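Convert to structure. Protein one:
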Amino acid sequence: MKERYLIFRAQAKSLANLLLKKLTCLKDVKIVLGFQNVKFISQSFADEILNILLVLTLKKQFSF
């Protein structure tokens, strides 16, 4: 995901789907999210991505 403005909940869901694909295909993988070129993250995007990561962590499918 190479967008400079992360605004919508749908963008967070797309990122979550990408993460799930990577995590389920590969074993013992470490994923680092880099936001160095992002100019703006909305409250909606941040809330959605944090909720998704929380659910994944609580399900203990993956640990971040």
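Protein two, convert as well:
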Amino acid sequence: MRPSRCTLLFLALPILVAGCEGPAPTPSVAEGEARACDNEYMPVVEGATWTYKRMTSQGDRTQQAVILDVSENAFVLGVTLTDVSYEEAWMCTDEGLVQLQAAGSPYTAVFAGPDGNVGLSSIDTVGVTLPTSFDVGDEWDQTTQVQISSSAFNGLATISHEFSAVRSEPITVAGTEFLAVVVEVSSTLEIPQFTSEFKSVQWYVRGVGLVKLEGQMTEPEFDVSYELVGYSVP
């Protein structure tokens, strides 16, 4: 079932079909003004769309992400796969973009029960997901504490991410060659008596966004990769 729309409540790393709650977005700023949501590596524009080929051991799918709504300091990203849709809530700060809650995270597999329902509520987050600008050699992190409710687990969890921009390199996706900054991400999920790690390599292109991702999770094992096949930024 598609979760209700919500704003201001990520990163379990990109990607928990979950309900959420939070304050309504503030009014949009006037056209042409600088905004907190401006970011070199993720064009935050209402209607911007990215289409990916998503590959896992369970098969390949098409995944589309579209920015549904943008306010002065928040935006909502809608994601659609073949058989599921969900929404991600992001916050915009002076330091960068903060993914506060993401449905469909690789960590879903950790908590999914027989009915597949997982509830997630962000309690606190420190750091950013994507700095306003970054380059090779830069490092940053994000730590989020969440309340998780599922048939498999109910309680608090801490999700932490360490990002490192390690190099730039050309990459060809969607029939076009880009120069990308490669970011290595080490993510950890911690709950009482259980720890899971998700390591990924992500390719970002200025003015375009995420164009490729390769990731692997332990406990349980889960491999996933994304590659951009098309995009549109109004």
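Residues 49-232 form a domain with the YmcC-like fold fold (CATH 2.40.360). The chain has one domain: 49-232.
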